[in-house]
Amino acid sequence: xxxxFVLTAFVFISATVxxxxxxxxxxxxxxxxxxxxxxxxxxxxxxxSLAGDSHMRVTWITDDESSPSVVEYGTSPGGxxxxxxxxxxxxxxxxxxxxxxxxxxxxxxxxxTVYFYRCGRQGPEFxxxxxxxxxxxxxxxAGDLGQTGWTKSTLDHIGxxxxxxxxxxxxxxxxxxxQHRWDTFGELVQPLASARPxxxxxxxxxxxxxxxxxxxxxxxxxxxxxxxxxxxxxxxxYYSFDVAGAHLIMLGSYADYDEYSDQYRWLKDDLSKxxxxxxxxxxxxxxxxxxxxxxxxxxxxxxxxxxxxxLVYAAxxxxxxxxxxxxxxxxxxxxxxxxxxxxxxxxxxxxxxxxEGLAHKYKNPQPDWSVFREASFGHGxxxxxxxxxxxxxxHRNDDDEPxxxxxxxxxxxxxxxxxxxxxxxLRKILMSx
Length: 433
Ligand SMILES: [Fe+2]
Fold this sequence. Notes:
alpha+beta, Purple_acid_Pase-like_N, disordered N terminus, eight-stranded mixed beta sheet, zinc, metal ion binding, hydrolase
């Protein structure tokens, strides 16, 4: 009897210990993609992105070089009462030759409306929903995706969430010079990326430059064209867009960012046009985090931060989302390394599930500005409820279940008075040569 009691107690204690301590899973292997032959004129790797006011860019690839860059669309299945013709491109990378990459902008589109569409007059019908005109709006966020078993888990969880726009702060395919990996990534994300706009910015894994032979970002720029022209930028590596009361600025960690650079000048120009009455929320995405207490990539963002943080602070940016470090970390409102009620909340979310695995080692003690840090795969959701409040949550891939592990109500800097308080300081920086 006594032995039975001791054994029962042991099992209970073991179970308690096992469940209390979350055991982080190992990295998962890169997915295998069986050859899936399609007629050469059928669209592959379909994804969409916002392209200026009430417009959407549809991107797809065909093996057939004579396939037209035409999108037919309408609000009922098979009822294509609208159409548009776009442009196409292709690229060579050593011995690899891409298919025909089509980019076609369609619109004007109604807000919060489901559209059915077909690419190149061939193949299956796709559908997407446009974002709402006003709050509430929900963003799904996952950086450093790759294409492993964990990527699939993250994408499955995002697919279960009700969201309007996907934000990806860099490191998409982890093709890493193997160009066919861009194609498999395009196929992997198509179910989600053909249904909701994917707004991405570049990471180091998009570079793929070879000295004297290949320029950087060739594949990325050809395949993931973002609305840089629509936002007055001269580079696909940095741009901005408005959606439902939020202005989002996608910065380029791997484009020049010094005070005399095109990117810095463009950022000043873009900020000078932001009207916080129209877009009370101001968000920034970039790849290399400025606030990072992980040992991984420690200090890599310092150069860009030294130049751009004063501008981001003066502009009262509400939230800065970064990737690169394969873990999750959230700050309090901070500026210049110190807690500041008018600073941005900085979130690192480079934990989409890539082949390199997690970044486990943190610097200790935990800095004052860092309030939550954990090395697990997962994704984030940002629901902007109205002009004053947004709800942020981080969902860890707990085995294969999404578990909400961090959450926070964020109050906008418009509502706290910071925007008004700093308007003179911002004007001074924007006016400086
Ligand atoms: Fe990275």
